[in-house]
Amino acid sequence: MRSRIAVLVSGRGSNLQALLDHLDRLDDARTSDVVVVISNRSEAAALEIARRRDIPAEHLAFPDDGTALMALLGRHRVDLVVLAGYLKRVPAEVIREYRGRVLNVHPALLPSFGGEGMYGSRVHEAVVAAGERETGVTIHLVDDEYDRGSIVAQWRIPVGAGESAQSLAGRVLELEHFIYPRTIEMVAALTLRDTRTSA
Ligand code: GRF
Hints:
This protein is α/β, with parallel strands linked by helices. It has helices spanning 14-26, 45-52, 66-75, 92-97, 121-129, 165-198, and strands spanning 3-9, 32-39, 57-59, 80-83, 102-106, 134-141, 151-158. A 7-stranded mixed beta sheet has the order 3-2-1-4-5-6-7, covered by helices on one side. The longest helix is centred in the C-terminal third of the chain and has 34 residues, at 165-198. The site of 5-O-phosphono-beta-D-ribofuranosylamine has 13 residues, from helix 1, strand 5 and helix 6.
């Protein structure tokens, strides 16, 4: 038995791609499958990545409508929800129903450089402007506040002297692609164990 993952995306989907590649490499040793990819933007490149792999790609026209998202997750019998560059708030009823089973990746060391509006190049520009010596990747559970849920994993990298935000963005993204799929697999395995224990 494997965990059934929904990936929620808004953009290019490089983290989705990294997850799918990681699961391919694990082959029969994997503990999860991506069973649906959902986007608030019908033109998101990430949906194309899903379609090319014959993974159902769903457009969520009203992302604030919790009932619609709950129905979609229910229809695909989802165990674990993974946000990968998803720029909308996850509705409260989904957070409630999937408590402890919604993950997000953030390209900085939370609780610093997070919160509403802190995404994309803005994060790295703020890190450089603040003169930080370290940045990194944070993977956290999602609750009803942006970037505030419990931290599951965090990795640090040094910021080079005079390093640009663009250079940081590339290095942090590369780290995300390594760390996020492995953390997702770990959480998926724990989710399965919990489901079995409580069954
Ligand atoms: C990543 O940097 C992630 O940390 C943030 O959004 C970006 C998504 O990139 N939450 P991609 O769509 O996975 O390429």
